[in-house]
TrEMBL record:
Protein name per Swiss-Prot or TrEMBL: V-type proton ATPase subunit G
Biological role stated in the UniProt entry: Subunit of the V1 complex of vacuolar(H+)-ATPase (V-ATPase), a multisubunit enzyme composed of a peripheral complex (V1) that hydrolyzes ATP and a membrane integral complex (V0) that translocates protons. V-ATPase is responsible for acidifying and maintaining the pH of intracellular compartments and in some cell types, is targeted to the plasma membrane, where it is responsible for acidifying the extracellular environment.
Statement: the UniProt record of this protein carries the keyword Transcription: no
One CC-aspect GO term: vacuolar proton-transporting V-type ATPase, V1 domain
Keyword presence, Iron: no
Assembly notes: V-ATPase is a heteromultimeric enzyme made up of two complexes: the ATP-hydrolytic V1 complex and the proton translocation V0 complex.
Amino acid sequence: MAAQQSQGIQTLLEAEKEASKIVQQARQYRVQKLKDARTDASREIDEYKKTKEREFKAFESSHAGTTSVAQTNVDRDTEEKLTTITESYNKSKDTVVTKLLDRVVLVHNDLHRNLTKPDA
């Protein structure tokens, strides 16, 4: 009976060693799969970044002309408005200066319309 118990214990120990090997292999397999997944994900991210960068460059180059045309139009409009304002200033400045000087220099000693003379 002792031999059977010894043999049973031996069988259990061997089974435990085999199970330990299987668990270790499973852990290594899992670690390898995680590394592979990270590598694949990193590669996919890089490819996606490159694709989006190319799309952005294409969009930027297609709209670059539009920006320069718009800037040219804005500059032209600004110059036209400045010219109009300058002409208006030059045409009206003498009249405005004269009116201002008349208001300051020519003083009228009239009572204000809301002020009535006291009845004496």
